[in-house]
Write a structure and sequence with these properties.
homodimer, about 650 residues, 8-stranded mixed beta sheet, 28 strands
């Protein structure tokens, strides 16, 4: 956490200095704005939070509810989402508050007494160590709270405008604010009052029945729907041995997905209600709670759940839907027209709740779009950049539906086939954990990347963090966790094997080019008068331990001067972790702060070339380019079209 | 974090349900109260925070300042203090926000050019692994903020009453609220207005010039004072290579203690101004800032600090003072009279700032007293318990002064003698880290403890945490970090080597006694109608891994029923960490949540007998008793006098 460089901060440094023109902003919805976000669910709120970081952008989010969501239904939080929360500064709080899924128990009919269930397996979550972040159960309502707090503490002090229902929109081409939106008040005191606002861009994050989606005429294909279930959040008295463990239960009477929730006493239970008759016509939705509980207890036999209190319950039919396009550009217009209206989250993809995907994929939708909108609205990129949102996210939605169809099918099936459900769960873990996304080469992922220079960082996938030693203060920390949701690109410069103090090295040559050459992205794309690190966050990682070189060995580009006093930022220079005599200090809780391991070499762990490498990471954490220290032309060429305002 | 068991919580679970009678409490100072705390510094605020946990106690804290402290001067946070913050629920935030002292650099005159300084050593902080918590630099003002937030979120919604100056007090023996305190308003609108309030107990945490101390006539001995220094918090441009590392600098021109602060840009520098002439008469305090900066730069040669902004500066004379007693009971009255008025923190001990001790020791004073006040005021103990505050804390103050005299003397000395300053620093680390305190056997530390049953837990010292696997959900976590500042005693029951499922074992016999025997402290001292874990938080730790036994193997006393629905708390049962195949998952950030190690056996690590052991830990985390599973008489006998209301 960096502060004091824009003036002494006496209070909570997480509360940013308000931008001058935002400090006393009118909380009411203005007539005209850069971005209007419709729907304050996870997809909309992450987009709003990202945009709130830039006070020069006038962005607003409306929500038809009159206020805060009191009871969220989504509750599965993937490691990738926790990683994302880290960038927004609230991962630790969520980790503290959430239930940690550390393992899953599998129960099946006891062969010696098939009427009874028996535990057959435990699988560890994330068996391959894909992420250092945990898999959590955490209430959607609290996720929204944290994003809202981020907005309130941001430089723009962005509010949520509750009580507005989106009705329709039309686009008036050629206008500066071409999207005209018609809204209706849902607040008691002004109910039904109409308001028309104009925006440059609109994001519809308004759920499965999205009106924004209808407005842009995007087709929402129904893939399949033939299954129903009951779901309830309950406080119970139970002798089920794995009550506090996520359990997948198949009995001869049906199946249950049992999920312990935050706080230690509440449980989410999904009770399968079987395949639907084609002519059911939603009759299943009338299933009473008692019947669901009775069915659950039948499945659970010989164990029992005595329900003491029900916080929420529902009957659902599994529907899988995916939207053909994520913006208002028709297939025949692609390449010739820039999008103005976007949709995200449930508006684009709906599916079963069983794999805990909905909220997570939706947030990645919102983040993907928001940093690009910021890049355009802040004058760094032309609007054509925004076409990449549909290109990148629509295939993810399709993959999601495909995965969930398979997963929910297996959950419901009584016959396992060739692969047990627990083996399937372990084998496919990368997908539900949120790390399967791999963007293809295009405008935002380099075509000429040299994957062989950093085999541990797959091009197009998220940058997988690793521990390094900060030269300035000897702290070891996770390099990737320094990535904040601030819209900046990361350029990680991995040094060649020459000592840091060597007067000449490939690293020095590269650093000089990056600092001074007119083809350097830092020189070319940073606005005059702005801090040198305002667009590109450049860090260097040496192959030496932090006691083996001096801070001032690092070229000046790695010690950027910032703020009104142009103070030197001394914290962007790293070495590998290589400290003697600390291997025995193993019972640390907070390795962020402690030297737990004698040697942890990021070069070795992530397969980085000993000749050095440059890794470019996008504002949403995806690896965009990998090149050598000598590949300066490739680096220039990669950024040139992204920052080309003439396109 | 446990919640939902007293009703569904939709918002932040850190905000406790307000007690009925406190929800709309009058924030103004009442006429009569149980406890009046004078002074909202670290000692007073921790005491207030602890008392705020109990809505049945009417406690208030007054402060002569009109509002929040904008600029705190103390900034060193020991690992023991971070451990304490963990119990109050805000350690992670402080860790995130503070500067982490991971190592200290030592600079001395360069032998080849004595006018220049040269780095001669780096010492790692906490080289012996005394604590899993880090050593931080963190602003006192923020510490106070966090305690205040704890109070505001507590069941009692306790406010801080700013704007009241304590003037004097008298005691009217025999009255229910015998301490009569005279206050004066310092608020602008009511300046000088007088108010008299009555309290059962008063804590003077009103600093070095404590009026409460004067009121009880406690002598404050001056030990020595012959040294002066300049101190400043500065934003600088510097080429000093260790600017971001805590550095102890001795040059031929004098010495500097250089401390990087939170945020990455601010530095605290202590510039030695040498020994004082006996006749100086505080003339040194007129030293101008420029002179201090010039002196600093002379010491730093060949490096330079260009001061860009000064957040705060001062000239100080080192004074060492310690108070003879911490309460209003005269030596000749000890044993025959119970104390009514106490003092804590700077009111009891003042010394140099160099070892970063002040705020830390003060907080332990406040906590030591506050849980005892709660024990008495909640009707669990007789007022005679309060005599242990003076008995336990006064010797700590004396040790502190002795340590600081030696440390500040060495910091100022140009001649090192037989031991280098860096060797001294490493050798004595336990003291400044806050873990040297060892309370002697007495009312609150057992006389007949069997230290040999748990060699890793020194009787009278703080319970040193270790990692265990929770049976309920397979999470591995730090046992000690589950200890909240809730006034409860911890009884850690370490099982004998019999399998958990064995129908008979020493553990089962003990558990039965603890649950049912009329001599059991749980049976005897828990109030009728209260939850079984309301006074004693009982946990069991088995010698098996968590997959090797079932939750229901554990006797019922380890699955207490709580709250209005009397739901079973399934989270008090633990095993050792023993998971195969996870040793390679080494790059975790959050081991709280992840199985980092294949095997971590608390029995082995803390020298716990394989025949089992019972470890009693006080509400302030100190080990109070160690006995065997068969030593039930000893356990009864230990608690009996503490909970004896007739004394």
């Amino acid at each position: 956490m960096q502060f004091h460089h824009y003036g002494y901060i006496s209070g909570d440094p997480r509360i940013r200095l308000a931008d001058e023109k935002c400090a006393d902003r009118d909380p009411n919805l203005p007539q005209v704005m850069d971005v209007l976000i419709v729907g304050a669910g996870p997809a909309g709120m992450i987009a709003a939070a990202q945009l709130s970081a830039f006070p020069e952008i006038e962005a607003r989010i409306i929500e038809s509810r009159p206020g805060r969501l009191p009871l969220g239904h989504a509750d599965g939080i993937q490691p990738r989402s926790v990683e994302t929360f880290q960038a927004f500064g609230f991962a630790q709080e969520v980790i503290e508050e959430g239930y940690h899924i550390n393992e899953t128990a599998f129960w099946k009919p006891d062969p010696s007494n098939p009427d009874h269930i028996k535990r057959v397996a435990w699988t560890e979550d994330d068996p391959a160590g894909i992420s250092e972040f945990p898999h959590l159960i955490f209430n959607q309502a609290r996720v929204l709270d944290y994003f809202r707090r981020f907005m309130e503490r941001s430089r723009s002090r962005m509010p949520v405008n509750f009580g507005w229902q989106f009705e329709s929109l039309e686009i008036e081409d050629g206008e500066e604010y071409p999207v005209v939106c018609h809204l209706t008040s849902t607040r008691e005191e002004t109910f039904g009052e109409k308001k028309t606002v104009r925006a440059k861009y609109v994001l519809g994050a308004d759920g499965a029945t999205s009106r924004v989606r209808s407005a842009i005429g995007a087709k929402n294909s129904k893939v399949i729907s033939n299954h129903a279930g009951g779901v309830a959040d309950v406080l119970v008295d139970t002798d089920f041995p794995d009550a506090m463990t996520k359990s997948i239960i198949h009995s001869t009477h049906g199946s249950i997905l049992h999920i312990p929730r935050e706080g230690g006493y509440l449980f989410r239970t999904y009770v399968d209600l079987g395949d639907l008759d084609e002519n059911d016509a939603h009759q299943i939705r009338n299933t009473p709670l008692d019947e669901i509980i009775a069915k659950g207890n039948e499945i659970l036999s010989p164990y029992h759940m005595d329900v003491k209190e029900v916080a929420w319950w529902s009957v659902y039919e599994v529907g899988h839907r995916v939207t053909e396009r994520f913006d208002d550009v028709l297939p025949e217009e692609r390449g010739s027209k820039d999008p103005r209206v976007f949709i995200a989250g449930d508006a684009c993809h709906t599916h079963s709740a069983k794999a805990g995907q909905g909220m997570n994929v939706s947030m990645q939708d919102g983040w993907n779009l928001a940093w690009k909108l910021a890049q355009v609205l802040r004058g760094y990129s032309s609007p054509s950049l925004l076409a990449t949102y549909n290109t990148e996210r629509q295939p993810v939605a399709q993959d999601l539906i495909d995965f969930d169809l398979e997963w929910s099918g297996r959950m419901a099936a009584s016959d396992e086939g060739d692969e047990s459900i627990e083996d399937f769960y372990v084998r496919t873990w990368e997908f539900p954990s949120g790390f399967r996304t791999e963007y293809k080469p295009g405008l935002l992922v380099a075509h000429d990347a040299k994957q062989e220079l950093a085999t541990g960082y797959t091009l197009g996938k998220r940058f997988k963090s690793y521990r390094v030693a900060r030269r300035s203060d000897g702290n070891d920390l996770h390099l990737g966790h320094l990535h904040e949701a601030d819209g900046r690109w990361r350029i990680y410069v991995f040094a060649d094997s020459a000592p840091a103090s060597a007067p000449e090295s490939k690293l020095r040559t590269f650093a000089k080019w990056l600092a001074q050459d007119e083809a350097s992205p830092v020189v070319r794309h940073t606005k005059p008068g702005d801090d040198v690190n305002s667009v590109f966050d450049v860090k260097v990682i040496y192959q030496q331990g932090h006691h083996e070189f001096e801070l001032l060995d690092a070229p000046e580009i790695f010690r950027p001067r910032v703020g009104p006093l142009q103070l030197e930022d001394k914290n962007q220079i790293f070495g590998i972790i290589d400290i003697e005599g600390v291997a025995e200090k193993r019972d640390s809780l907070y390795p962020l702060t402690r030297n737990m391991f004698a040697k942890e070499d990021i070069f070795e762990a992530r397969g980085i070339s000993r000749d050095g490498a440059v890794i470019v990471v996008r504002p949403d954490m995806y690896v965009a380019h990998i090149c050598g220290l000598e590949d300066t032309e490739s680096l220039s060429a990669f950024f040139e079209p992204i920052f080309d305002l003439s396109k």
